Amino acid sequence: MKRSLQFVGLVCVLAALATLALAQEAQNGASSQATSGTLAAARNLRVKVDMGAVRVHGGSQSNITYVAQGHSYSSEPERRRGSFKINSYVRGDTAWIVAEWEGGRPRKFSGEFVIDIPRDTAMVKVETGSGAVEATGIAGRVEIESGGGKIHVDDIGSSVNVQTGGDAIDIGTVGGDLKLETGGGNISIGSVKGMINAETGGGNVVVLSGAMDAVVESGAGNVEIKRCGGKVKASTGGGSISLGDIAGPAQIETGGGSIRLMSAKGRVGANAGAGTIELYGVPSARVETGAGGITVKIINTGAERNDSIVETAAGDITVYIAADVAVNVRASVDLGNGHHITSDFPDIHIAAEGGPWAPRTLTAEGKLNGGGPMLKVRTTTGDICFRRAKQ
């Protein structure tokens, strides 16, 4: 093909959804319009629409085809004041499908663009002013921007970047890095081979599997990560956080919910404004809650050992320690009246100061397996228990 013919495909300026009427219901003023087109395959695809849902599906076809459908529920005079223009063309290595509304926009309108492309397309970028977006079966990377609408992405070979003004994001499998942002919807993530960065203004976040590091943030919802192959940073302004198996360190923070972690290979930091904290199977931890009980299980994971601090202003603390963990223990209950420090380890020595009618302080100190990093445990009012961890 000659260089002068780089513009592959026909430049179509179609008053499609305004001039091709397939059906009209006179009794309620509703009308439906549709148009379709074909473009030669290109390395990249760019889709820009003023409004409406966009669905891009990769498959075995050798070219790009699209179908646009629209439904208007406005009056006939109002529909005549504007029209939906679709331009489709290939420029260089990029195919473009651009849909713009010209004239007065109808108050009641819904549209959908269904686009089929070759699976091996290197990059797909979709922009819509408002509407749901779906992208599936694409070997390259995917970028999506929507002013407000649900997003569904699955079976993507490379990286994914999604932004929506305020609705849910659902992710299946992604072969590269994943970056998500929604103003206030739930986020669901299946399996990601790259790094995960997900943020929602006020919804829940669920991650089933991530092969590398993950950063997850919610303004007020719950966060759940079942498995992560790297380090994790998870935070929420007012929900609970639940983590499964983490292959690295973890930093966890909630303004007003509970924290639960099944295991982590690296050091764990966990902070709750008010709520219980449970960490099972960590090499070391820095744990603090404003009000709530704490349970920590310290084991050898092969990671570097560090000092641990476990504190709550009001609540009981239970620390399980594996038989092969070497540690120095120091514990205290500030207001010990009616509370106790108990231990399964004879090498931890417990003492009390003060009488039954005066403020009573409880302390405990000792070395396990010859001593090692410091383990400091403190509660203002509550019980402290040291237990042998079962293998």
Q: Outline of this structure?
A:
The protein has helices at residues 16-19, 76-80, and strands at residues 14-15, 21-25, 30-40, 44-49, 53-59, 63-72, 82-91, 94-103, 109-118, 123-128, 133-138, 141-146, 151-156, 160-164, 169-174, 178-182, 187-192, 196-200, 205-210, 214-218, 223-228, 232-236, 241-246, 250-254, 259-264, 268-272, 277-282, 285-289, 294-298, 308-312, 317-321, 327-333, 341-343, 348-353, 361-368, 374-379, 384-388. The protein contains two helices and 37 strands.
Descriptive notes:
There is one protein chain. The protein is mostly beta strands. The protein has a domain at 1-167. The protein has 2 helices and 37 strands. The strands form 2 sheets. It has a 19-stranded mixed beta sheet. It has an 18-stranded mixed beta sheet. Strand 7 (82-91) and strand 8 form a beta hairpin. It starts with 13 loop residues before the first strand and ends with a strand. The model is unreliable at 1-29 (pLDDT under 50).
DSSP, total strands: 37
Task: Please give the alpha-carbon distance between the first and last residues.
Answer: 70 Å
The biggest beta sheet is recorded as: 19 strands, mixed
Shape: elongated
* Rg computed from alpha carbons, rounded to a whole number of angstroms: 29 Å
Average pLDDT metric: 88
Task: Name the poorly predicted regions.
Answer: 1-29
